[in-house]
Request: fold
Amino acid sequence: MFSYIAGIDEAGRGPVLGPLVICCAFCKRNKEKQLGKIAFRDSKGFSDSQRRKIYEKLKEICNFRFVEISAADINRLMGEMSLNDIEAMFIADLLKKLENADVMIDMPDRYSWVFRKRMEKFGIKRFEAEHKADEKYPIVAAASICAKVVRDDKIARIREATLDFGSGYPCDRKTIAALKDRESYAKLKPFVRTRWKTLDTVKQRKLFEE
Reply:
């Protein structure tokens, strides 16, 4: 048992617009009880203002490292590997910079043995992973909160530079309307995940082939 604990989670796996952010949170094991009083649920359980206040408190207890994978990088890498492989590769990069910590990952794969083989392919063998780990382990909840705050800030900057496209999620009508509009799409194109299946559901398919 190491003296440090670490948690890994992501934000932005599902959207059709913007980056995927993966965060690693870590702290001394003796801070775990204190951490649990602050990060007692995953990021989705808090409002934006709550998350930001909690994130500031967490920074007094935890250290954070994160990686931002742009839509352009996702598009390029998905020509070579699956999204789950992409996520595992970047998680591995974060963990290779971390020593002396027991690690818990919010598992993206359906089966643990599949995820373990995936992580081993990228050189990581010592870790634990569970579904909904962000709801069970405060250190993973902390990573979830960090990833969400970082990604929300990035999305806000993209909106300022382009237009209001809503949340960027495929269930958002404003997002889909922006993707269907030729002029709007031209502005958003650098931030669109063009390999997403969501785009297949947009009727103006020719828009994305030009």
User: Anything to note?
Assistant: The longest helix spans residues 138-161. The two ends are 55 Å apart (CA to CA). DSSP finds nine helices and five strands in the chain. The first strand starts at residue 4 and ends at 11.
